[in-house]
Amino acid sequence: MTLTKRIIPCIDVDLDDEGNAAxxxxxxxxxxxxxxxxxxxxxxxxxxxxxxxVFLDITASADGRETMLDTVSSVADECFIPLTVGGxxxxxxxxxxxxxxxxxxxxxxxxxxxxxxxxxxxxGAFGSQCIVISVDARRRYDEQGEFFADVDGESCxxxxxxxxxxxxxxxxxxxxxxxxxxxxxxxxxxxxxxxDGTKDGYDIPLTKAVCDNVSTPVIASSxxxxxxxxxxxxxxxxxxxxxxxxxxxxxxxxxDAVKAYLDDRGVPVRL
Length: 271
Prior knowledge:
Layout: E1 6-15, E2 21-27, E3 30-36, H1 38-47, E4 53-57, H2 60-63, H3 69-78, E5 83-86, H4 92-100, E6 105-108, H5 110-114, H6 117-126, E7 131-140, E8 149-151, E9 154-162, E10 167-172, H7 173-183, E11 187-192, H8 204-211, E12 218-221, H9 227-237, E13 241-244, H10 246-249, H11 255-264
Parallel strand pairs: 1-4, 1-13, 4-5, 5-6, 6-7, 7-11, 11-12, 12-13
Antiparallel strand pairs: 1-2, 2-3, 7-9, 8-9, 9-10
Helix pairs in contact: 1-3, 8-9, 9-11
């Protein structure tokens, strides 16, 4: 049985000047601009045929705040598809509280890199299907990595970053993906800082490098500008799901249009 490929809209949530949760969209994790209300967008994508929905509190780790659980609860009330929530999750109790607020899965980046045992603890307590390990990757053109890819004729490796891409770690993304999978991660959420918000297409070398080295499902993120980009990341990189934000938020394409494009070209999707 062939598994269908998933199309997943994502919202990046922060607090506005009045302390209210709001959705923002940026480029390369910077230059954020207001995009909408998280609950209203949840309603929109629940009706639009999304396979899943991702809610990321984008400054929780950097600011030391807990994820906005009240907003998560409001979003979960309007979202009847699988909901993944990330941002500032560092302990088993954080996982528990986020799931209790209505999330089906949690996305963990900084907390897992700082203490890999959290992956094993979370998978053991709540099931691997709940644990999504997120990596915010950026290209490095030096010899410090473990797994290298050719990008436009140059050799590079991909570094894990933390705190919303603000700090490097010297940890190779592929090596970390393999370790996280061995510890029980149910999915890997691969974000490209280099491609983020550009609409120039997913980072194929990054996504393929991870997909080629793990059997755990991989969600490709960052850079989607059109249905062709989703087709490329599925057929050339081997991703299991494609996440997008701007093209859906600003109604450049509908989820149905992306799925129809994929279906016409033989990519299995849920229509």
